[in-house]
Design the sequence.
């Protein structure tokens, strides 16, 4: 079953000098429900543009985007977003941030508290409910962002380089947390990243994009995330020969793309 | 250090002296210099009365009054005018600033009006205001209101325009309506900037006080200073200046405390 369908999307960037450059030109992609799709490609290829179109923040010049057959016309609570920058509301505590989406739709206080409680448990933030968010570390802020998106119970999560600003250790903790969340909620996730190791580790569906205008160059079904869920350690998976092999494969492809883009 | 809102929050505390101690030192130095030059009679008392004469006058005026009103009554009259003007300005400038920050067309339409009147000295349009609104309280409050209005509009507009677009996008993806965006994201995000605007505006308001109380006033600190200057009661002029400065400082401290309380994350968020 197709949950997300992008049909012949075209989009241009209005640059300050000169003519608008096409970022997407007749781009199409189908994503099945429940996948953890990772979009990877050379810098500036239009991954973020694509994600913004799916989120409804920007509209493509042509083409359509459908979720379960409904076309997207703007941002909505069915698509939760998480950016590299946390975008939490600093005048609210952790729990108030997590409850924010529920409060916007007028959910009763008891429901809000119950949902916030279980979501905070899921992201390991129990005990931090009353903390002001500006006191938290970068990794914890991203946990709150994840919890805030999850508490609103969206159909899918759209993540734009969510762990890009974190240190290596925190980043891996967040990757494994995301896999745990993905497995326990079954949410569809579309994630954009620059980090190839992260892409190979997380993706159940890895989509490699060409330099702009972006096209789908290649697509891989991967199972490293499932192996983690089955109990193997993240370090062990990432040092496994099959993992390294895949990673190198994607990396050399990306280098080729980069050289082609420069030429 | 407690009062400072800016980025020095993470600086290690100076082992020598705290900020308030350094500020206190400046005040003491100025007082000392004042006492010294008047004690040595470098400047005649008509030009600059000494601290003793000024504080003596202050005590006298607070007990016996000046021009049929005690110092407290003068204070009260001025305070009430500035406070009413501020309330009026908050009720009008914040909604206008919000609308201007949200709407580019409206901003382009209204901008020339504000920028036209803002740099004009209040004394210049004082006669017009008297012709339009008479010599009662309305004119006095309106003059102070005009001085307070512009900085709050500008600060609110700037604060609204500076809201992180990412915050707005996240809220939209949580299902926020346009009204909810304003209420829960835009206004609270702009609040620290609005507070800074209010601080600047109140300074402008107090400095317009003397001009406002030129209009047939019988009470008020500005009136007291002018009247005293006409009779060459220089010690009362200096005393009046000190009282205005102190009252304004009190406002400023209260506002800084409020700002610190409502936005403790300032300068500490990524």
Sequence:
């Amino acid at each position: 079953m197709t949950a997300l369908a992008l049909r012949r999307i075209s989009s241009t960037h209005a640059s300050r000098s000169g003519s608008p450059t096409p970022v997407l030109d007749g781009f199409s992609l189908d994503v099945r429900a429940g996948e953890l799709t990772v979009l990877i490609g050379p810098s500036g290829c239009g991954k973020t543009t694509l994600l913004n179109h799916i989120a409804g923040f920007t509209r493509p010049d042509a083409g359509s985007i459908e979720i379960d057959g409904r076309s997207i016309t703007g941002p909505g609570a069915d698509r939760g977003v998480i950016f590299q920058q946390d975008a939490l509301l600093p005048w609210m505590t952790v729990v108030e941030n997590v409850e924010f989406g529920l409060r916007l739709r007028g959910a009763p206080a008891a429901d809000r508290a119950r949902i916030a409680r279980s979501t905070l448990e899921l992201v390991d933030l129990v005990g931090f409910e009353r903390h002001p968010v500006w006191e938290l570390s970068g990794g914890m802020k991203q946990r709150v962002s994840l919890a805030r998106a999850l508490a609103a119970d969206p159909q899918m999560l759209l993540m734009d380089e969510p762990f890009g600003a974190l240190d290596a250790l925190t980043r891996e903790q967040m990757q494994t947390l995301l896999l745990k969340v993905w497995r326990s909620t079954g949410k569809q996730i579309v994630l954009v990243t620059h980090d190839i190791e992260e892409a190979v580790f997380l993706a159940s569906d890895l989509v490699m994009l060409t330099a702009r205008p972006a096209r789908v160059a290649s697509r891989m079904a991967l199972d490293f995330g499932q192996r983690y869920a089955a109990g193997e350690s993240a370090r062990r998976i990432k040092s496994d020969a099959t993992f390294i092999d895949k990673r190198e494969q994607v990396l050399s492809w990306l280098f080729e793309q980069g050289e082609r883009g420069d030429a | 250090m407690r009062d400072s809102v800016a980025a020095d929050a993470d600086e290690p505390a100076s082992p020598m002296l705290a900020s308030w101690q350094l500020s206190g030192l400046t005040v003491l130095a100025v007082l000392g210099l004042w006492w010294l030059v008047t004690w040595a009679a470098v400047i005649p008392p008509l030009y600059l009365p000494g601290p003793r004469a000024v504080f003596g006058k202050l005590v006298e005026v607070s007990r016996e009054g000046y021009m049929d009103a005690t110092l407290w009554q003068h204070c009260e009259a001025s305070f009430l005018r500035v406070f009413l003007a501020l309330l009026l300005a908050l009720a009008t400038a914040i909604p206008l600033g919000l609308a201007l920050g949200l709407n580019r067309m409206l901003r382009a339409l209204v901008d020339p009006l504000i920028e036209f009147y803002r740099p004009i000295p209040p004394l210049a349009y004082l006669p017009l205001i008297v012709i339009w609104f008479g010599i009662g309280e309305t004119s006095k409050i309106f003059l102070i209101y005009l001085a307070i209005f512009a900085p709050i509009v500008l600060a609110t507009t700037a604060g609204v325009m500076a809201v992180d677009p990412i915050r707005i996008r996240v809220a939209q993806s949580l299902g926020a309506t346009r009204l909810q965006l304003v209420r829960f994201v835009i206004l609270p995000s702009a609040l620290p900037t609005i507070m800074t605007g209010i601080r600047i505006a109140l300074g402008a308001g107090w400095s317009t006080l003397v001009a406002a109380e030129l209009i047939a006033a019988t009470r008020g600190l500005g009136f007291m200073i002018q009247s005293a200057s006409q009779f060459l009661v220089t010690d009362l002029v200096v005393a009046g200046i000190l009282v205005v400065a102190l009252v304004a400082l009190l406002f400023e401290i209260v506002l800084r405390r409020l700002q610190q309380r409502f936005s403790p994350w300032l300068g500490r968020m990524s």
Remarks:
- Chain B touches chain A at residues 164, 166-167, 169-177, 180, 184-185, 188-189, 191, 262-265, 268-270 (CB under 8 Å).
- Residues 29 and 268 of chain B are 34 Å apart (CA to CA).
- Chain B has ten helices and no strands.
- Residues 1-9 of chain B have pLDDT under 50 and may be disordered.
